[in-house]
Amino acid sequence: MAGKPPQSDPVQDAPQVSEPQHAAAGLPAIGHTLRMAQRQMGVKRTALTLLRLNQKDGFDCPGCAWPEPEHRHTAEFCENGAKAVAEEATLRRVTPDFFAAHPVADLATRSGYWLGQQGRLTHPMYLAEGADRYEAVSWERAFDIVAEELKALASPDEALFYTSGRTSNEAAFLYQLFAREFGTNNLPDCSNMCHESSGSALNETIGIGKGSVLLEDLYKADLIVVAGQNPGTNHPRMLSALEKAKAGGARIITVNPLPEAGMERFKNPQTAQGMLKGAALTDLFLQIRIGGDQALFRLLNKLILETEGAVDTAFVDEHTHGYEEFAEAARAADWDETLTATGLTRAQIDEALAMVLASERTIVCWAMGLTQHKHSVPTIREVVNFLLLRGNIGRPGAGVCPVRGHSNVQGDRTMGIFERPAPAFLDALEKEFGFAPPRGHGYDVVRAIRAMRDDKAKVFFAMGGNFVSASPDTEVTEAAMRRARLTVHVSTKLNRSHAVTGARALILPTLGRTERDLQGGGEQFVTVEDSMGMVHASRGRLEPASEHLLSEPAIVCRLARRVLGEGSRTPWEEFEKDYATVRDRIARVVPGFDDFNAKVADPAGFALPHAPRDERRFPTATGKANFTAAPVEYPKLPEGRLLLQTLRSHDQYNTTIYGLDDRYRGIRNGRRVVLVNPEDARELGLADGSYTDLVSEWKDGVERRAAGFRVVHYPTARGCAAAYYPETNVLVPLDATADTSNTPASKSVVVRLEQSVTN
Ligand code: SF4
After folding, report:
1. Ligand 1 within 6 A of 231 CB?
2. 64 lines ligand 1 (CB under 6 A)
3. How far away, in angstroms, is 64 Cα from ligand 1 center?
4. Which domains does the chain show, CATH number per domain?
5. How far is the CA of 502 from the centre of ligand 1 (A)?
6. 629-683 pLDDT tens trace
């Protein structure tokens, strides 16, 4: 019955395994979507809600950051977007009675799936010091408690202000403004754990940490390389764009250790032809060895350099720096070792090269499969080298395309959510608001966890998200969180982070993106920035889940007034009443947002400027696009070990578990599974269906164990295994991060598989 959460908690995983599928979406996706939506919202609300999703006068999907097409379909969403919205618009409620019945110790035993299925939070809840359960508290009292703890700190730098990528531009701008007026740059965000490596590499090489292609460019490309990404689950509407690009003559190279149904065939539910037959997407599947992507692009670059006339010398001469040094390094690359690092054959490399040389407009798309390794930044620089060689930046149908996984994660960074803000941004903030913002760099996610572990940070405040489940080294992270004086979560639904608390804890329930936001100045809308730098409005349309909810901007403004007091000259009250006044300030502080309110009045939104794309101007240290001559790196594997990548199931979005199935991979009713190549399993003596413990090995000698995983013989690349997070985040050492970006290296964890002691 709609609105009724599952009573029993299926902690005990009982995965059933069948053959992986070879096509994504189609009729099953429609059926799955409607069944799941009806369970959460009932029939009428399902129709009301989904027909407003991603529409010009509707609300933006709180799922991934895939852009909206100019022409919106009646059903302009994918299965996973519908899941995200249904969980937010659910009729299920988590009331004070729920907390009275469930002490924190009980909540801590519950699976993330069960917690998330309980529904929407309705009241501010407080866990007093020494208490065993949350109790309802007034907003005023809640802000008092936060103010007490913040004011008791020896330094503002003992506070952490975390942001998840769902936070709107207006809330993010106000949040960073509050944190900086309070006196700290401790603004860790979920981008630290996902595309930070992309930002670091692109800022250095092309001068801006964002993708250079718009949706239309995908339709104009004649070669699209999709590397380290599983769009079928994580950015499903991208499949429609790839289908359209193919129809326009594009060819697709997929680079992934795992064959994924979505990149094999897409059954587009928007057309009868699509639904029945579908479209094959991938022309060449390169089943790369985990962490072998830099080596692959290095070999392609080496061959391009060795091919007469293949280099766009006019572009290279006019727009780039460092070509000679890079070319020398590429020419010197050792074939055998570099090829081994890829796990591919020479024939496959040659086939890819032929497609590259036949292309005049190439785009490379990527996601976590490239960003969560020790050598991710050099890998993405090598991708840029690959595109620069043939002038594939700054012209239609060509460019870099990091695909963001959270609906406004790029927007949050643009609004100043960054622990290492640019001096120019702080100068603009100081000029606009008349206070001296802190200039010292703050903590990113990994450093924030260390700071809590080492008692250097005592107050943790999260704007959305599920920090403890998203973070690496689960036992270390949870122990660190429990050392805090106060943990505060601005949330829509229950999650594990609410059960791993500081001495005191608060849960502050907020409006969802689907919900009407009425403030003193009337009905408000917020804005988001998608993965391609398009900014548009999002208007909530549903009645709020509870009369006790506050919007994210209202929470920040009231907290700021309570904490900063009369001393602050920032018009927090005005900002709370009318978000247009916030946008006026954003227009004066953030480049590209001039005339913000006027520009966002256009239902299609507007594109932010991107100098490399728009003018082939590269605002780097050299004033040119920079080639990089980095040594090729790849993970080394001791005998009898496997390289594990942590990943999402199809019934999952980041740490939100919508269900226990991963139907494209043939997994049902269970999450504690490890996908292992049959040859590797045979050599390790692991029968399909047997149970194993995963033990990661790291130089600190600490044994990190994830117990009781069902072995699934799966066509992964040799030496490479895969399992879901957050269950396997316990295996990722806190200090195992990417060089430069400090992103957790969750995609290449060295593990041994031991006979399970629990099953
Ligand atoms: S592709 Fe992403 S943004 Fe679009 S509906 Fe699906 S989850 Fe939402």
Report:
1. no
2. yes
3. 5
4. 16-88 (no CATH), 93-191+408-511+542-599 (3.40.50.740), 196-403 (3.40.228.10), 642-755 (2.40.40.20)
5. 34
6. 999 999 999 999 999 999 999 999 999 999 999 999 999 999 999 999 999 999 9
